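Entry for fe (ii) ion complex. Fields follow.
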Amino acid sequence: MKIGICGGTYDPLHNGHEALIRSVLAEGLVDRVIVIPAGQPPHKRQSRISMSRYRYEMAACTFSDEPRIMISDIEIKKDSPSYTLDTAAQLQERFPDDRLVLIYGSDVLVDIRSWHQPLELLARWPLLIADRGGLQAAESRLIAADLSRDTGAQIDFFPAPQIDLSSTTIRNLAADSQPLANYVPACVDAFIRRHALYRWKDELDRIDVSLWHELAVIEHVLWDMLTPKRLLHSLDVLHYALHLSFCHQVSARKVAFAALLHDCAKCLPLREQEGLAREQGDPQLQSGALAHGPAGAMLARRKFGIEDPDILRAIVCHTTGCAEMTSLDQIIFVADKAEPSRTYFDLDEIRVAAERDLDHATYLTLNGVQSFLDRTAIQMHPYTQTAVSNIRKRMKHNADTQTVIDNQTMDD
Ligand SMILES: [Fe+2]
């Protein structure tokens, strides 16, 4: 069997990628295709790329109707920088009786010589290059002829649909809330909207690239610790909480670590969660669904080396709230309940408040939690009760102070 290997960043996967991959199969050039979303790129990037689970899910939904196309997390799961040579060698080991062929757009021919050990790569596996016609195609053939002469590479071209799209343009359109239906598959469009994937792109682009790399390393570990759904939720909380950190001038670093790790213990067996919660030591948060907060703080410390008490506290109390909630606690608490993909009660009012007034947003969220608990006949946790009454007092105090200030201003 002949297997086409097709890698890319896919941030997001767009109609051009889809057409290219489907056309290789339609032309009968390969029997199957393995689509490989990139992991951490070999050369440290100057710019941020979206977290792996988002990019993987967009590829997976696009080809869910086509059993001959498989999505692989082989590069995402690598600990070290991923080179095409290593990935192809690993896949060849996994499919020893099949012939592998590497599929690329023609732009790759220009810089393939600068890749990691290009001679070995080109000597071992043939390339299948998308031919989009025009002047560029003629140039590509000349470069290919040079490469074949110098390295013995086998390079073939196949006719690919001419779709001129760039993921950068699509990210910018999404950030401007422009429709994407003409540029990306329908499921990718729906996915981007459901997770508000690029809504806060400009803010997230302002985050230090080295912090983003640290977060990507954490995501890499969470890949096997959390279910895909739980990881997507954690990433949604990360994006939304970072947006709120910009609205309220709270440390993006603290917010990011607390948001990404707040549910890190949630997919452990309950017995393990409760064991970790006992070690953490808060007697009020040791059993059932409440244990994952303190258990998460313990794991954040042990497995991810987080020692900052502010971050650990926000993780501990993200489910129940707590007596004197800091802005960091409030951002994690509200973001967990109102991240973009949540739909369980009317969250618009909370989302509007969250950008302006964290006390108000936390109060509304606590009320939402209370009515949810009323419906399920679960008693409100004492921490939640205290959080509600303290925030109510704080809001009243702030309102009274404002009235005094307003009166003074009028008197002046
Ligand atoms: Fe959560």
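NOTE: The mean pLDDT is 91.
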